[in-house]
Amino acid sequence: MKIEESSIVETSDYRVIIYPASRPFTPKESRKITEKLYDFLATWAAHGKPLSSSFKIEKNQFIVVCVDEEKEAASGCSIDALGGVMRAIDQEFELGLFDRMKASFVENGEIKTMKLQDFRKSLKEGLISTDIEVFDFSKNTYVAFLSDFMLPLKKSWAGIYVD
Known about the structure:
This protein is α+β, with helices and mostly antiparallel strands. The chain is built from four helices and nine strands; from the N terminus they run E-H-E-E-E-E-H-E-E-H-E-H-E. The protein has helices spanning 27-43, 76-93, 116-124, 142-148, and strands at residues 15-20, 45-46, 49-50, 53-58, 62-67, 102-107, 110-115, 133-135, 150-152. The strands form three sheets. The chain has a four-stranded antiparallel sheet. Helix 1 packs antiparallel against helix 2. The termini are far apart.
């Protein structure tokens, strides 16, 4: 069961799972990913009970899945099932969705993604401006996603890499 777009309210604190790609999606990839996720979420269940869920493709590079756990909590098996679908998408399009050793940020209006070690090194060497905004993929509630998904470098998790 899907959460209809109009029922996702900023005050509702849905569980959020963020899958960050290493690059933007092509229009064809976005369409195929959307089709696959609509098909999966229409039948997604926990212990036989339908999960009220939805997703969106954010910034043409990040897949954000929401689950209304006030209606039915996602179980370990249901999260594993979602992971299986996401792994299949990842393999089909070579997106790096499960590579957590990367940083994505906005510099001069453009989203960039780098290996974490290269990101740290570039910050220390001044190759990346400290005026960037950084994405945080650890957000696990919808309210946290809305407020803290993208933060100025110094207020983000990556702030530890600058003086």
